[in-house]
Amino acid sequence: MGLNFKKWLLEKLGGEEQRVTSAEITGEEFFDLASDLYVREIAFWSCVNTVANAVSKCEFKTFMGKKEVREGEYYTWNMEPNRNQNASAFIHKWISKLYQDNEALVLEQNGQLLVADSFTRKAYALYDDTFTGVAVEDFTFKKTFTGSEVLYFKLSEKDMRRVTNGLYMAYQKLIDYSVRSYQKSRGSRGILDVSAMAQGSEKYEENFNKLMNEHFKNFFNSENAVLPLFEGYRYTDIGSKTYSNEGTRDIRAMIDDVSDFTAKAFGIPPALLNGTVQGTSEATDHFLTFCIDPLCRTLQEEINRKRYGYAGFKNGNYVQIDTKAIKHVDLLSVSTAIDKLIASGAFCINDIRKLTGETIIDEAWANQHFMTKNYATVADLLESLQEGGTL
């Protein structure tokens, strides 16, 4: 296999803790490392896709003069950030780069928002950071971007992917041991006795190599087979009685552990990844509260400070990432709550319809707020009592 691909694989696996160098790796080691990579990558990208799917369901609300509007900025964030991507594809790339590299860069060119595939950042304490070598797909910008010209997102001070990789390097030893134990317990084992007379034969080396490399291989790999033996050879099958009974379920449980501690690094409840139905509602609430809401706040803060600034903020111009649409709403189960929200005057009918994913009603009464007569202010109640009324 090509040296470059091996080197890439080692970089993906190792970080600061590579076990071997690209010059030392053998074919067998390569496939062992590839297996390690698959286990780790499926855990990592399952978490990334879960987060990206959640953010892509959010609505990027735009406000002008503290009033919600749906114009060009709204269309850009919710429909078409650029001519080659819709909003969902754009967000998936954006979030993927953020978690993969612990940072992401979004720039605007000719009215289009683009997620950079690679860039080099020069950080300064008192001046704008600079970004060079910014590449998007097949195009690399020759100019140097300043921090005020781009949207730069950093996930955390510590790259959690490197942390989980380090943890996985230690945990992988347990998985490897379990796999070897399972293979050993299910493999064919035996004892080959070779007499002194057979060892003294002129064709001993030829016969021995043929037996080991051809006859035994065919014998162990065939469902039904006969093992031909030379004179002076005796084979005794000892089966697998002396070996462990490690099961595939035990190995599966260890691989699930990899997903669990990767999910914890993301702030995702493991139940959302392993398919556990019980407690899903509570897990979803935890996911939204401690993973998605903080992430969306980080994203909208960078968007607002770069695209609107203090002047826009002062005038009530900003973007708000609304996460309420992430969680599926069962209308029948929340019908009582909907009634209370409308009856208390907290929300109008169109507010509720947007919360439940329904189209709004283009009528004035659908935007009015209603309140039942059961509600009253404390002042009104005191006035009623003074006039001889009752509670």
What features would you describe in this structure?
The chain is of the alpha+beta class and 391 residues long. It has 3 domains: 1-102 and 155-187 and 242-327, no CATH class; 188-239; 329-391, no CATH class. Helix content is 50%, strand content 14%. The strands form 4 sheets. Strands 5, 6, 7 and 8 form a 4-stranded antiparallel beta sheet that branches. A hairpin with a 7-residue loop joins strand 5 and strand 6 (130-136). The radius of gyration is 32 Å and the shape is elongated. It starts with a helix and ends in a 5-residue tail after the last helix. Residues 14-23 and 241-246 have low confidence and may be disordered. This is Phage portal protein.
Nutshell version of this structure?
It contains 14 helices and twelve strands. The protein is 50% helix and 14% strand.
Mean pLDDT: 80
Shape: elongated
> Rg to the nearest angstrom?
32 Å
Strand content: 5-15%
Total separate domains: 3
User: What is the helical fraction, as a range of percent?
Assistant: 40-55%
SS-based class: alpha+beta
What's the β-strand tally?
Answer: 12
Order of helices and strands: HHEEHHEEEEEEEHEHHEHHHHEHHH
Largest sheet: 4 strands, antiparallel
* Cα separation of the termini: 85 Å
Which regions have little confidence, pLDDT < 50, spanning 5+ residues?
14-23, 241-246
